[in-house]
């Protein structure tokens, strides 16, 4: 595997697996006898989550990232030509695209098992914004091998020292030379820069205000929904309480009726037992009387048979 391909594959690895993968590949290169390659691999830095998230965007959403960087180039051209209305329109587009890219980064990293915090999301946006503001920074973003997030330190000024593991163009320059360059900037360009910074700041403030307003509306909608749910729950609770009271009264009434019926049943049972005893006594008396009648009939028949016949 050549070094550029190795870089591309290594910086696609999630942060939690980076160190083990790097060290394994370094050992493999050393075992193959390529100590120089092993040393270069071992010296590669693990990217923090914001840089890894941008690298992931470059790999998974390259077209969108390229459109973002092209938008940055258009904004720089608009600034140079003092196209104020066009610049403001591009600033709106910048905010929309950056916001969409933040969402995309969150989805991609979550799919890889990493949830982006609000602070990390801001660093992702700052890195993409830095890539929009400077061609060299754009190349560093395109490389997909960032080892740290980027941040514009001034108008079109991005510190790229050690920012990427790839051999992407950088702009190391002495501080005195930068100072001389700033002094030689034409007044019209300085004015354009100030206008761009003002437009960007205004756009950020507008976007922040919109975000707060959107959150406020969402919160109000959630509160209204909660109130409606509470009202419905109270109505249901009132209905349930009324039904419970009715059921309870019905149950108590049936319990009283059951007690009355049980008492009446006990009395009837007692009467039935007494009547049954009387019936049995009467049956025994009737049976005894029947036997007496039978005996008397036999005795009468016997006596009549013994009577002498009339002369």
The percent range for helix content is: over 70%
Q: What is the tally of beta strands?
A: 2
- Which spans of ≥5 residues are poorly predicted at pLDDT below 50? 168-185
Q: For the report, how would you describe the main beta sheet?
A: 2 strands, antiparallel
- H/E element sequence: HHHHHHHHEEHH
What is the average of the pLDDT values? 82
Structural class: mainly alpha
Helix-strand blueprint:
Elements: H1 3-10, H2 15-31, H3 35-42, H4 49-60, H5 62-80, H6 84-111, H7 118-133, H8 135-143, E1 152-154, E2 157-158, H9 175-183, H10 187-306
Please give a handful of descriptors for the protein shown.
elongated; 311 residues; mainly alpha; 10 helices; two-stranded antiparallel sheet
Question: In words, what does this structure look like?
Answer:
- The protein has 311 residues and is mainly alpha-helical.
- It has a domain at 3-210.
- 79% of the residues lie in helices and 2% in strands.
- It has a two-stranded antiparallel sheet with strand order 1-2.
- Strand 1 and strand 2 (157-158) form a beta hairpin.
- The protein is elongated.
- It starts with a helix and ends in a 5-residue tail after the last helix.
- Residues 168-185 have low confidence and may be disordered.
